[in-house]
Amino acid sequence: MASPRTVAILAFDDMEVLDFAGPYEVFNVAGELGKGNPFSVFSVGLTGAPAVGRGGFTVQPTYSLDDAPPSDLLVIPGGAGTRPLLQDERLLAWVRERAGEVELLLSVCTGALVLGAAGLLERQSATTHHDAFDELAALSPTTTVVRGQRFVRSSDRIVTSAGVSAGVDASLYVVQELTGQATRDVTVTEMEWMWQS
């Protein structure tokens, strides 16, 4: 049996709850119910301290940036907390490094701003939360900002999603692409999610 793909999800202060928890649930359920347990999920914080998201939602990261093992997928959530990250050179360097190693990088909502600040969306199409379209365009001027679409395949290794709940749809798309429709379907059924293509 092949080893499961590892999925690292970034956790930081003022992250949007569903941006983090939606993909976490999708990949975790797919890992539990999919044939061969195709995914294993862990969280990565800027430090080892708890990350406190919107409304007090708190995540105790499994790892910090300093000790996080390599992963096959990396998920960057959004939320108000992305704005300080745009100036965090340590975090941006870590994201750039991981982007060169992972099979796939997924941003949710304003997580796309982090990818833009890291230079990963140059000359690519991408989407983000509808309130941040202009912000992404200013941050990464060569990026074609796609409006009104749940998620965008920005490159062979990057998927960007629109706001909040769109991260679930993008994660299900990734599950289907990497493991097939049967695993996506069992995940959708377990989550009672209305599939949106």
Number of domains: 1
- Please write the CATH class name: Alpha Beta
Q: Write down the secondary-structure element order.
A: EHEEEEEHHEHEHEEEHH
Looking at the structure, the CATH topology is Rossmann fold
Describe the largest sheet: 7 strands, mixed
Percentage beta strand: 15-25%
**What ranges have pLDDT less than 50 throughout 5 or more consecutive residues?**
none
Give, in spatial order, the strands making up the sheet with the most strands: 5-2-1-6-7-11-10
Number of strands: 11
Number of helices: 7
Dominant shape:
globular
Nearest-integer average pLDDT = 96
Fold and architecture overview:
- The protein has one domain: Class I glutamine amidotransferase (GATase) domain (Rossmann fold).
- It has seven helices and eleven strands.
- It has helices at 17-33, 82-85, 89-99, 111-117, 133-139, 166-179, 181-191; strands spanning 5-11, 39-45, 51-52, 58-59, 63-64, 73-76, 104-107, 125-126, 144-145, 151-153, 158-161.
- The strands form three sheets. The chain has a seven-stranded mixed sheet with strand order 5-2-1-6-7-11-10, sandwiched between helices. A two-stranded antiparallel sheet has the order 3-4.
- Helix 1 (17-33) links the parallel strand 1 (5-11) and strand 2 (39-45).
- The radius of gyration is 15 Å and the shape is globular.
